[in-house]
Amino acid sequence: MTQNSHQTLGEFIIENQEDFIYSTGELSRLLSSIKLATKIVNYKVNKAGLVNILGEYGNENVQGEKQQKLDVFANETFIETLSQREVVCGIASEENEDFIEIKANRNQVNSKYVVLIDPLDGSSNIDVNVSVGTIFSIYRRVSEPGTPVTLEDFLQPGNKQVAAGYVVYGTSTMLVYTTGNGVNGFTLNPGIGTFYLSHPNLRIPGDGSIYSVNEGNYVKFPQGVKNFIKYCQTEEDNRPYTSRYIGSLCSDFHRNMLKGGIYLYPSGTNNPQGKLRLLYECNPMAYIAEQAGGKASDGYRRILDINPKELHQRVPFFCGSKNLVEKAEEFMAQNPE
Ligand SMILES: O=P(O)(O)OC[C@H]1O[C@](O)(COP(=O)(O)O)[C@@H](O)[C@@H]1O
Ligand SMILES: [Mg+2]
Ligand SMILES: [Mg+2]
């Protein structure tokens, strides 16, 4: 792997494509298209209040959530940017009920990749100028190229991902991704419109003193989670830990990756499967966490080994520093649901 701190994302993608077992340059073109779509979304996010893109769009998505204008803009931007470049044969998105087969001139796009995407993560923070993100997950299709794309091409376990990443539109805009050879972070220089390698070889500290969970749901949590939160708050050893919760998965995950910590979105009496979606939120973040030395589970099972059944299925999510996730799992095992 070649790295120098002033390397651009474009150079990094090209210079490291040989590390990718299926390397033909196709994945590099796909990653470059995601980079382009990210810049277009970033341009809107940064001046959201000035360009009438705050507030609700007026529709509900398949999750029953009110779509924000920026959800729709980001969704359309990623779908258009990837489709026009014929770098994917199919796209599944949080904002679309079904997957989209990409056709060019009515013919099947001959790409071997499908992408699953959360175009705008942390939607509840858009209107209040708190950082939001984008999450993507890439697989090789399982159906034969040239044949219709199938649901099976998307319902693959996370351990089959060939690449995954997220973007944080925060104080600066960062894109963090992996193709299975470690995790690297790039910061956008808005003046030039170029991403530069700013965080090479990211590693999550094994331990940490930050826990991120919406404690407003405390009474609905499983006993194991309640006990883990009490453990974090107990004055003992290097505890109590610090509670930090932004309410944007990308931003909470990113902070915990840099500082050490755990993010939890457990099941609750109101949502037995939790809130986060396995395919385009938990799998990509779990792949990045593991590639950076961290861990991700649903409290019991490794997220990446879960066999998906539905496009928008949800799973409880425990992710971050290895020792903290294992501690939380200990409490879950002591109080099985
Ligand atoms: O407001 P809650 O229930 O704590 O949920 C916050 C979580 O939901 C999400 O906003 C879900 O993602 P979307 O915004 O993409 O739907 C996560 O980013 C975040 O961690
Ligand atoms: Mg999300
Ligand atoms: Mg979203």
From TrEMBL:
<keyword id="KW-0378">Hydrolase</keyword>
<comment type="pathway">
    <text>Carbohydrate biosynthesis; Calvin cycle.</text>
</comment>
<feature type="binding site">
    <location>
        <position position="214"/>
    </location>
    <ligand>
        <name>substrate</name>
    </ligand>
</feature>
<comment type="subunit">
    <text>Homotetramer.</text>
</comment>
<feature type="binding site">
    <location>
        <position position="121"/>
    </location>
    <ligand>
        <name>Mg(2+) 2</name>
    </ligand>
</feature>
<dbReference type="GO" id="GO:0005986">
    <property type="term" value="P:sucrose biosynthetic process"/>
</dbReference>
<feature type="binding site">
    <location>
        <position position="120"/>
    </location>
    <ligand>
        <name>Mg(2+) 1</name>
    </ligand>
</feature>
<dbReference type="InterPro" id="IPR044015">
    <property type="entry name" value="FBPase_C_dom"/>
</dbReference>
<dbReference type="Pfam" id="PF00316">
    <property type="entry name" value="FBPase"/>
</dbReference>
<dbReference type="GO" id="GO:0006094">
    <property type="term" value="P:gluconeogenesis"/>
</dbReference>
<keyword id="KW-0479">Metal-binding</keyword>
<dbReference type="Pfam" id="PF18913">
    <property type="entry name" value="FBPase_C"/>
</dbReference>
<feature type="binding site">
    <location>
        <position position="94"/>
    </location>
    <ligand>
        <name>Mg(2+) 1</name>
    </ligand>
</feature>
<keyword id="KW-0460">Magnesium</keyword>
<dbReference type="GO" id="GO:0006000">
    <property type="term" value="P:fructose metabolic process"/>
</dbReference>
<feature type="domain" description="Fructose-1-6-bisphosphatase class I N-terminal">
    <location>
        <begin position="8"/>
        <end position="200"/>
    </location>
</feature>
<dbReference type="InterPro" id="IPR033391">
    <property type="entry name" value="FBPase_N"/>
</dbReference>
<feature type="binding site">
    <location>
        <position position="245"/>
    </location>
    <ligand>
        <name>substrate</name>
    </ligand>
</feature>
<keyword id="KW-0119">Carbohydrate metabolism</keyword>
<dbReference type="InterPro" id="IPR028343">
    <property type="entry name" value="FBPtase"/>
</dbReference>
<dbReference type="GO" id="GO:0006002">
    <property type="term" value="P:fructose 6-phosphate metabolic process"/>
</dbReference>
<dbReference type="GO" id="GO:0005829">
    <property type="term" value="C:cytosol"/>
</dbReference>
<dbReference type="GO" id="GO:0042132">
    <property type="term" value="F:fructose 1,6-bisphosphate 1-phosphatase activity"/>
</dbReference>
<feature type="binding site">
    <location>
        <begin position="263"/>
        <end position="265"/>
    </location>
    <ligand>
        <name>substrate</name>
    </ligand>
</feature>
<feature type="binding site">
    <location>
        <position position="118"/>
    </location>
    <ligand>
        <name>Mg(2+) 2</name>
    </ligand>
</feature>
<dbReference type="GO" id="GO:0030388">
    <property type="term" value="P:fructose 1,6-bisphosphate metabolic process"/>
</dbReference>
<feature type="binding site">
    <location>
        <position position="275"/>
    </location>
    <ligand>
        <name>substrate</name>
    </ligand>
</feature>
<feature type="binding site">
    <location>
        <position position="118"/>
    </location>
    <ligand>
        <name>Mg(2+) 1</name>
    </ligand>
</feature>
<comment type="similarity">
    <text>Belongs to the FBPase class 1 family.</text>
</comment>
<keyword id="KW-0963">Cytoplasm</keyword>
<dbReference type="InterPro" id="IPR000146">
    <property type="entry name" value="FBPase_class-1"/>
</dbReference>
<feature type="binding site">
    <location>
        <position position="281"/>
    </location>
    <ligand>
        <name>Mg(2+) 2</name>
    </ligand>
</feature>
<dbReference type="GO" id="GO:0000287">
    <property type="term" value="F:magnesium ion binding"/>
</dbReference>
<feature type="binding site">
    <location>
        <begin position="121"/>
        <end position="124"/>
    </location>
    <ligand>
        <name>substrate</name>
    </ligand>
</feature>
<protein>
    <recommendedName>
        <fullName>Fructose-1,6-bisphosphatase class 1</fullName>
        <ecNumber>3.1.3.11</ecNumber>
    </recommendedName>
</protein>
<dbReference type="InterPro" id="IPR020548">
    <property type="entry name" value="Fructose_bisphosphatase_AS"/>
</dbReference>
<feature type="domain" description="Fructose-1-6-bisphosphatase class 1 C-terminal">
    <location>
        <begin position="204"/>
        <end position="332"/>
    </location>
</feature>
